[in-house]
Design brief:
Largest sheet: none
Order of helices and strands: HHHHHHHHHHH
Radius of gyration: 25 Å
Shape: elongated
Number of strands: 0
Length: 289
């Protein structure tokens, strides 16, 4: 017989149980969840663009054709389908931003990991090198590198990556220095593990969460940076579909045929906002671990 106010055996909660605890995703705001979904949809659509859009570099109809069911975003000054070019441009922007972040994490993360784990004169030397790059005007240096190497998407990515890695070096170094004093790291060090194993197995995993959060927030900044450099002529040359270059080329038709420059401009805006909201959502997920 059950007594009122006393829970039965089936209602007992085991120690450590998370029954009734809201999931991590529920802790993320509505706008952040919308950003995550929107970013995922944009990425899937842009990566699958060759399967459902027209060739972005050939003329498919009359020039300056207004948006219609046949051409969702209309056609440009040479009859190219703007929707197809925007979808390819989204893929280009996303992959370029990922390339910059990956290179920055690999270079900056390696430098920060070694500096934080070894300390001493090596730490001082690597951090002074990092400070030298941080002291340089980042956008100007990126423009100079891209201009010196020549106008192309690859050179633009290289120019941005040159000025992006120091931030990750500083971030990883700070996290590693904080982790180096933890008991499990001291225990691993006293057990006689090698320096490389200590860094890769005991220090690097603990530094990854803030790196992932920072990388997710950097996507939005990189999308705008890449679009800005291509807008001033440092991106891929025509007829390569690139959002910044498309907006620059269509600026002359802003009043006569506004869909030509506005379509890539709005695409950059939507991608940047979605990436920003998604980055905030990923940050919230890690903050509530």
């Amino acid at each position: 017989m059950r007594v009122r106010g006393v829970a039965g055996p089936g209602a007992m909660t085991l120690p450590g149980s998370r029954k009734g605890e809201p999931s991590r995703l529920r802790d993320v705001g509505v706008l952040e969840r919308v950003g995550l979904v929107l970013l995922a949809l944009l990425l899937m659509a842009s990566l699958a663009a060759p399967l459902f859009v027209l060739d972005p570099v050939i003329s498919v109809g009359p020039a300056f054709q207004a948006p219609s069911w046949e051409h969702f975003f209309g056609t440009d000054d040479v009859g190219q389908d703007i929707f197809s070019r925007v979808m390819y441009g989204l893929r280009t922007s996303w992959l370029s931003a990922v390339a910059v972040i990956v290179s920055a994490i690999v270079i900056g993360g390696s430098i920060g990991l070694v500096a934080g784990a070894r300390g001493g004169w090596l730490d001082a030397l690597l951090m002074r090198l990092t400070d030298t790059f941080l002291a340089l005007p980042g956008p100007v240096l990126a423009i100079a590198v891209a201009a010196a190497l020549g106008a192309s998407l690859r050179n633009t990515v290289i120019g941005i990556a040159v000025v992006w890695w120091p931030w990750y070096a500083r971030l990883v170094r700070g996290e590693v220095r904080a982790l180096a004093t933890r008991p499990h790291v001291d225990a691993a060090r006293l057990s006689g593990v090698s320096s490389s194993r200590l860094m890769l197995r005991h220090l690097l995993p603990g530094a990854l969460p803030p790196v992932i959060v920072t990388a997710s927030l950097d996507i939005q900044i990189l999308v705008l940076t890449l679009a800005g450099l291509s807008f001033i002529g440092l991106g891929a040359p025509p007829p390569t579909p690139e959002l910044g270059a498309m907006a620059a080329r269509g600026a002359d038709y802003l009043f006569a045929s506004p869909w030509i420059p506005l379509a890539p401009g709005v695409a950059v805006f939507v991608l940047a906002v979605a990436a920003n909201l998604a980055g905030d959502g990923i940050r919230d997920l890690f903050d509530r671990r």
